[in-house]
Write a structure and sequence with these properties.
about 625 residues; mainly alpha; two-stranded antiparallel ribbon
């Protein structure tokens, strides 16, 4: 019994030892896998969630975080545009929350209004066109580039010639995603803008955010002047608003309640608001004609600048839709703001009573007024609680949320893949990075598998007295880091006129002292009897080397090939130094350039994509290495 107990205790200790070792290995594996999962998760993020370090991104299982990423992309990462469109005061996209309630009746009316009302293209801006914070390429911009390629081909020079642009590469192609609200952001009349506007009509309706002068008035004009406290605004204006949410941009100057509000309205309309949302009533026509006559003196001068054929100033009509460019735009803007005659000192200006707001907000209110007549009827039929029609705000937030609920799966796929698509698009359409890398790595592996085995075979087959001195010299080369030898190699290659060639990449590393040392040791382990038998059979030295030595050395050759591929594939600094011509840049150089102009998530995605070829080559070589180790031991 004591003997059995001792054996049991011994076995228990052995099991405990192995259990501890396995536990230690599991912890070690987790310590390696977890950082990789963090990088994998980081490659799917954007500016709103990049600071959260987690192995599984929140947007994959949390609809609230998915909604935040969607709103960030919908407004092209501009929090100001989101606040203006929704009339909110969100401090970051991390605080954005879905609407608590959705009035389905009002939402349906908004959809009907959009279908029934022909709005100009500048009335809305589309999302997923720019990502200035994440510095990636959203799906809308990718689709725009694909549309240009389908029409003009992949030659960016042809695109520049057709659209009057000056893009250096496809990566520089951008669409202006600014909402047409500020006077400085008036729509432009160019071939490229026309192509962008045509493309916007093909994007999903749920990506559209309509310009809101109402929200812009409060967010960019009222609050910067009077602060975020409604009490300060009430004190300055003599009003009793309970919150900023109750304030609306009046349609006309006379509809404002107090003189101070009228003053703010006039200053905002004359100097700040985009001309596209301003209309002038016909009563201002005489003043407008007098202003043009005072500025241009004769009708011939005006016709020259306008490209028109008016017989007199009395034939000039009042502008209804503001022009997009030219002298007519400049004159119209000056008439709205006010123009003083330098000779007579008279101020020519559109009468304030003739100015009115012509916005999507007011068009929607007019649509509801025509359909329901009064707010009481609208409240009864749509279950709302408006006291006046002026209180109604277009339900853009609810409209976007409804589209989000219908497309959550597609959004998750887009956010998971878009940074990888950005990297793939960059390396496919920039230079010859992939081709150069394939040629470079292929030549590097081929040379390594030819030069190193030949040198090692000579040292192993012929027992020279200086063999160990040669080996010591070869091993001594490992004492110098590659950075030390780059400058001498560069100077030597420049003297040989080999810069910007594959020879410059291959020759300095074609022989490796450590590889020769490994191969020499492996060749020494091969049975001498095999060589003697081959010699008796009349085999030549080349036959012995190629069909005998190399055939039996596949495991160590796989190690050498893997090392040569890794060194060539990851070679960035030396490849950049000796090949400064973009036509000879390898993939690592192009990825470095991409990382300089991209965000952190794109950088993570580029590293993961760059690791795939090395991983595949390692798996291929691992099978050969394991066959050379496991199979002989089993035999």
């Amino acid at each position: 019994m004591p003997i059995i107990s001792a054996i049991g205790r011994k076995h228990w200790k052995v099991r405990a030892l192995f259990t501890g070792m396995y536990l230690f290995l599991v912890i070690g594996a987790a310590s390696m896998v977890y950082p990789f999962m963090l990088m994998l998760a980081g490659s799917t993020k954007s500016a709103v969630d990049i600071k959260y370090f987690e192995a599984i991104p929140r947007f994959l299982y949390d609809d609230t975080w998915l909604y935040r990423k969607h709103i960030e992309g919908l407004f092209n990462e501009s929090l100001m545009d989101e606040n203006v469109a929704y009339d909110r005061d969100d401090s970051t996209f991390e605080n954005v929350a879905p609407p608590a309630t959705v009035n389905q009746g009002l939402l349906n009316e908004w959809r009907t209004f959009l279908l029934a009302t022909p709005l100009p293209l500048y009335a809305y801006q589309c999302g997923y066109l720019n990502a200035p914070m994440s510095r990636t390429i959203p799906s809308g911009l990718r689709a725009f580039k694909q549309a240009l390629m389908a029409r003009y081909g992949q030659d960016i020079i042809r695109v520049n010639r057709a659209l009057g642009t000056e893009f250096e590469t496809w990566n520089n192609v951008r669409i202006n995603a600014n909402t047409c609200l500020d006077r400085r952001n008036n729509p432009m009349a160019t071939a490229f803008v026309s192509a962008g506007n045509e493309f916007k009509t093909q994007l999903p309706v749920g990506w559209r955010s309509y310009a809101s002068p109402d929200g812009y008035y409060k967010k960019m004009y009222i609050k910067p002047v009077y602060g975020n406290a409604i009490d300060d605004y009430n004190r300055e204006h003599g009003t009793r608003h309970g919150a900023y949410d109750k304030i609306r941009l009046a349609r006309t100057w006379a509809e404002n309640g107090t003189p101070k509000e009228q003053e703010d309205w006039e200053q905002f309309v004359r100097m700040t608001l985009s001309l596209q949302w301003i209309r002038v009533d016909a009563v201002a026509l005489p003043e407008y004609r007098q202003y043009l006559q005072a500025k241009h003196d004769t009708i011939a001068i005006l016709n020259k600048y306008y490209g028109t054929a008016y017989r007199s100033f009395n034939d000039i009509p009042l502008i209804t839709e503001p022009p997009l460019a030219g002298m007519a735009l400049s004159d119209w803007e000056a008439f709205i703001a006010g123009w003083k005659d330098p000779d007579t000192k008279r101020l020519y200006q559109a009468p304030v009573a003739a100015l009115r707001i012509h916005s999507v907000d007011w068009l929607f209110r007019d649509y509801l007024t025509r359909k329901y007549g009064s707010p009481e009827d609208l409240n009864r039929r749509l279950d709302t609680r408006y006291k006046t029609m002026v209180e109604i705000r277009p339900p853009q937030r609810e409209f976007h949320y409804a589209w989000f609920l219908e497309n959550r799966r597609a959004l998750r796929i887009e956010f998971v893949t878009r940074n990888y698509k950005t990297v793939a698009e960059y390396i496919l359409f920039h230079g010859r990075g992939i081709i150069n890398t394939v040629i470079y790595c292929g030549l590097a592996v081929l040379v390594a598998l030819l030069v190193n085995p030949l040198a090692a075979y000579a040292l192993s087959r012929y027992k020279m007295s200086s063999t160990y001195k040669i080996l010591l010299f070869l091993m001594a080369t490992m004492a110098f880091p590659p950075m030390v030898t780059q400058i001498p190699n560069f100077l030597m290659l420049r003297q040989l006129n080999l810069l910007n060639t594959f020879a410059a990449l291959i020759l300095p590393g074609m022989a490796n002292g450590y590889s020769i040392f490994l191969l020499k040791g492996f060749f020494d382990s091969l049975p001498r009897e095999l060589y003697e038998s081959a010699e008796l059979d009349g085999a030549s030295e080349w036959t012995i080397f190629w069909q005998l030595t190399m055939a039996l050395s596949k495991p160590i050759l796989a190690v050498i090939a893997l090392a040569a591929f890794t060194a060539a594939y990851s070679n960035f600094m030396f490849a950049f130094v000796v090949c400064q011509d973009e036509k000879m840049w390898t993939l690592m150089v192009w990825l470095y350039q991409l990382q300089q102009m991209s965000g952190q998530s794109v950088m993570y995605a580029s590293l993961i994509i760059a690791a795939i070829p090395t991983f595949v080559i390692f798996l291929f070589c691992q099978n050969i290495i394991m066959r050379g180790i496991v199979v002989p031991s089993e035999k």
